[in-house]
Amino acid sequence: MPAHTGAPGAGIIGPALERVLREAPAARCRLYVLTDLGRPAAAAPLAAALLETGMPRHVPEWALLHALAVAAPHRGGGLDRRLLDDLLMELRADGVRAVWFLPGPGDDDLRALLESAGFRSATNHGLSRENEQTDGYDEPEIWRWAPGLFREL
Question: How many domains does the chain have?
Fold first, then answer.
């Protein structure tokens, strides 16, 4: 769903959502939520992830994961991994070829989750040779050299 401060799951992401919406065009930001279909429709989501993707109306070739969090009452049950696995599968089906994460202070748990899911240091692993060419400013070449995590899909 489009990312905005009133979207379901926005409260789980916290201040990262407002920061990302100030820095990136809203049309490129998406909020993914994990809900329990056995609960009432008005029940709050269990987990959420915030991503920025390539140009709108085009097949995005990359995605930048800004945040992934589980609501406090549901932490410790593996929902973070479930959301990540579902998210990567959906991104791959949508044509996304690479996912990036640029960690900041306090991102140690998310970094560990991503590394367990096959993300590797971006400084040691860039795009594969066939994916190295960029199509203008939308595929941020600098991310290949940034101290973050990267995974090809």
Answer: 1
- Describe the crossing of helices 79-93 and 108-116 by its angle, rounded to 10 degrees: 60
Please give the helix or strand (H or E) that residue 69 lies within, else none.
strand 62-70
Which residues, in sequence order, are CB contacts of 49 under 8 Å at separation 6+?
A: 13, 31, 32, 33, 65, 67, 68, 69, 83, 84, 87
* Residue of 60, 103, 111 lying closest to 84 (CA atoms): 111
Domain annotation covers residue 131: yes
Domain annotation covers residue 3: no
pTM, two decimals, is 0.80
Can you give the length of the chain in residues? 153
Residue 4 is assigned to a structural domain of this protein? no
What pLDDT band is residue 138 in, cutting at 50, 70 and 90?
very low
Q: Provide the β-strand partners of residue 101.
A: 65, 149
Rounded CA-CA distance 82/70 in Å is 11
Full residue range of the structural domain in which residue 23 is found:
10-152
What is the amino acid identity at position 132?
A: E
Per-residue pLDDT tens over the stretch 85-128:
999 999 999 888 889 998 888 889 999 999 999 999 876 444 44
